[in-house]
Amino acid sequence: AIGAMKPEPFMYRASCELIGADTSDYFSRDQVMMIGDSIQRDCYAPREVGIRGFFLNRRGGEGFKSLTDFADHVLATSSGLAS
Question: Which of 15, 35, 45, 61 is least enclosed by beta carbons within 10 angstroms?
Answer without folding.
Answer: 61
